[in-house]
Amino acid sequence: MTTLNKVFHLNDVHTTVKRELLAALTTFVSLSYILFVNPSILHAAGIDQGAAFTVTALSIAIGCFIMGLVANYPIALAPTLGSAAFFSYNVCVGMQINWATALAAVLVASVLFILITLLKLREKVVEAIPPDLKYAISAGIGLFIAFIGLQNGKLIVGNSANLVMLGKFNSPAVGLTLFGLTLTVILMAMNVPGSIFIGMVVTALLGILIGQIPLPKSLVAYPPSIAPTFGQAIFHIKDINTPQLFMVVLTFLLVTFFDTAGTLIGMTEQAGLVDSNGKIPRIGKAFLSDSLAMVEGAVIGTAPLGTSVESSAGIAMGGRTGLTAIFVGIFFLISMIFSPLLAVIPTTVTAPALIIVGVLLAGNLKKINWAKFEIAFPAFLTVVGMPLTYSISNGLALGMIAYPITMIASGHAKRVSPMMYALFFIFIIFFLITNI
C-alpha cells in the first residue's frame, strides 16, 4: 500500500486501492463490449477477426498501463469506434485501400501525434479553450454517452420519418434495460457505494435467469494469435506515397486529435482534476500517453486508440488516479482467456451505467454563463453537436467555429486568444476534409 501511494499519490486525492479497483472494474465492464464490436468493424476491412479480438484487448491493456504510469490519470485508452469505422468503411472499403496500408497510415499519423505533443501544441490548444466551452464539452460528452446508452438499451431506436423514436416497451431487451436503470437510479439516490457496478451485476444475473442472456458454452479459451496483423503497419509505411494516402494520414491525425482533446477535457473535469485556474495538471503527459498508445495499437494491428468515454463510469465510482487505469489494463489482459464469458454480456446490461454517467456529466451545464449569448450559442452548439452528429470532434468543431464569430460580433474580439482564432480556421479545414 505504501508503494502504491508513493507511485499514484492515493492519499493526495483521498482515494483507496479498493475504490480504484471498483472504479476499474466498472470501467472495464462498461468498455468490455469493445472487445467484440471493434473486431467486427475491423473484419469488414479484411482483418482476421480472431486476431483483432486479441489485438483489441492487448492494445487497451498496454494503453492503460501507459496512461496510468506516465500521466497518473484514471482514464482508459481504447480503439474509438468512430476511428475504427472511418478506418474500415471509409478508407479500406470506400477507398479500396489495403488494411495493412491503412494501418501504416495510422502509424504515420501516430508519430506526427507524438511530435505535436512534444512541441506542447496540444497542451496549448487545450489551455486556450475558454472555461465555458470546457464545461460545454464535458456536458456534451454526457449527452453523447447517455444517447449511446439509450441506444444500447433499445430505449431509443431508429425511425425513417423522425430519425429516432422510443423503443417498444414489450421488448425483453427494453425491459431488462429499464430494470437495470431503475435499480441503479434507486441505488444512486440512496448513496449506495458501488451502485453502478451493483446495478450491472444484478441486471446480468436477472437476464440469465429469464433467459435473455445465454450461459457461456465454456469458461475460457486460448487467445487467438496476433501474427496476422503484428508489424504490418511498419512493413507497409513505404506504401504511403500518394496524395490520397497523405490525406488519409491527415484525417486520422485531425479526428483523433480533436476526439481525444474533447474527451480528455470532459473526463478530467468530471474527476475534479482541473485546478482553480481552469488548467489540467499533467495534461502534457496525458497527451503523450495517448500518442504512445496510438503507436503501439497501429504496430500490433488496430484502429487509432483514444481516450475512452466509458472511463467516466469508473470516475463516477471514485476512480481518481492511474491505479484505476492499471487495473483496467489487467482486466483486459485477463479477458483474453475469458472471451466466451464476455461474449454473453449484452449492451442492455451496460446501458444503464452509460445513461447515469451522462446525467452526472450533464451537471456541468449549470456552470456555463447562459446569460451572455456570445458564450451561450457556441456552448449550445458544442453540447448538442456531439449527440446529434454522433461525434465528439464534430461538436467540438461547431463550438470552436462559432465562438470567435459571436465574440467579434459582440465587441469582445480582444478576449479571443490567437490560438482560438487559429482553431477557427483549423476546424473549418477539419470539416472540409472529413465531411465532403
From TrEMBL:
Keyword Membrane applies: yes
Entries under InterPro entries matching the protein: Azg-like, Azg-like_bact_archaea, NCS2
Membrane topology listed for this record: Multi-pass membrane protein
Keywords, comma-separated and alphabetical: Cell membrane, Membrane, Transmembrane, Transmembrane helix, Transport
Keyword check for Signal: no
Record-annotated membrane-spanning stretches: 20-38, 50-77, 97-121, 133-151, 171-189, 196-215, 245-266, 313-334, 341-363, 375-403, 415-433
Source domain of life: Bacteria
Predominant location: membrane
Intracellular or extracellular location(s): Cell membrane
Family classification: Belongs to the nucleobase:cation symporter-2 (NCS2) (TC 2.A.40) family. Azg-like subfamily.
Name recorded for this polypeptide: Guanine permease
Taxon lineage: Bacteria, Bacillati, Bacillota, Bacilli, Lactobacillales
